[in-house]
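Consider the following assembly input.
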Amino acid sequence: MSYTGPDFDPPQPRRSPLRRPLTVAIAALVPGALLGWGVYAAVGGPDDGGGGGGTDRAGSVRTSSAPSSSGPVSPTDDAKRPTGASPSASSSPSSSSTAGNPSASASKSAASGPLRGKVVVIDPGHNPGNFQHASEINRKVNVGTHWKECDTTGTATDAGWPEAEFTLDVAHRLRTLLEAQGATVRLTQDDDRPYGPCVDERARIGNEAKADAAISIHADGSGAGNRGFHVILPGPVHDGAADTRAIAAPSAELGQRIAGNFVRATGSAPSNYVGGGTGLVTRTDLGGLNLSTVPKVFIECGNMRDSKDAASLTSGAWRQKAAHGMSEGIVSFLRG
Ligand code: ZN
């Protein structure tokens, strides 16, 4: 969909309106300009479940409210369980059109292709079973800088389609695209475990796979009217088990390439509620990023609580475009 309507314009007037779509378009087309693309250290919610501006989680330790031009964001919005939504809900829109193999978490190595020899770890945010395992996912794990919940339930559309179903579907599509390029792909979970994994394990899976790139897929649970995608980059952290100093720069490059290609593939605009219109947000509170030793980003593909964004997120055709944008960004990053 194209975000040319007034509800996307003007997101954050305190920043130059010219930076917004323009910078993303430039990044998509001119890799050399990537380093010049400003990255805002916008502050979002604390979710490792994702949540940029964040409410893609069960709120508990928000460090700061997200800047928003369209009203306050409920920190607990995402914690609401989608009433009546079963993890395996057959109402899941367009969920069967993916070519993913739900029983395999790791893929075979492709024999050829530009990404031959490259390993990509895809982290589908949350888990459809998390709703049934509150005590397990609420257990605290150390993420270097602090302790936080093992995992969160994620958000859902107003109609009850869970984020965890969305993330798995996009992950399957992305895996198919990357494998076609020759990459070896591993998923952190494939609805093949009762809950989780915890955020520290999600990071560890990427580390142990020695991933050349890792991406955690989410959709946000922010207020209606908050729209668009954003890519979350690891900020500099050196505390306890967390040390992102070596991955911050390559992760930023990965994120910029994904953001640019996501715009091009989906026609979606960058978030109008975090990131100052750049589609990029830097955070230091996400265990999935803090504990990563490989280049890694999160992507919040849109806001499930906004009806217009939800219309995109629940469309299989749109999700294919989204996966394509991510794939193009990752390919661009890995090919240099
Ligand atoms: Zn999430």
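The pocket of zinc ion is lined by residues 49-51, 56, 125-126, 154, 163, 218 (CB under 6 Å). Ask yourself how this observation constrains the way the partners meet.
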